[in-house]
Amino acid sequence: MTAGSYIQQLGYTDIQSLHTAYMDSAKDLNKIIRQQPEVKKELKNLRELKNQVEIYRKTADNFKKYNAPRQLAYFKNQFFEKHKADIEAHKIAREYIYDELKLTKFPSLKQLNENISKLAEAEKQLREELPTAREKYDALRISTHNARMLLGYKNLEQRNIEPIAGILRFGQTQSYAVKLMAKSYHMRTIRRLRN
Fold this sequence. Notes:
It contains seven helices and no strands.
């Protein structure tokens, strides 16, 4: 089989178009891989914010009663002891929302739920796209390597086509690869004999 017929069998016109498709698939795969942690982090932050907003709203009444003006210190301390968990949870939620995140407008639960569902959908979509992008990348990487092997690396060097990571690199002959394989086989044999 010639390199030209192999490339045409894959559905590309020449080695350059195959290489371009390979590079595009690598960019797509990297984009998906980079987006996943960002989406997960943002989703985690929104869920934490939603949790703190819910705590803030649930404990707001007790906190207002505790901070009511013209309240005697004895009754204030007694109320604090009775509702200590709610008051402290409210203070923590308030610090998180206004001091840590520095939000000026209090977020609505409806809006938070919508944002969380959108991000969860985006995360699910990225998880579904990752295996197909990885398969496409691997197939194009192998196909590009095979086409380069059929064309011969020296021929590609003369045509100024960029190298790709593979078994052979530019400037290395096939005998170099055979030497590497023989050396690794020799090292494995020596390790086996030592054990």
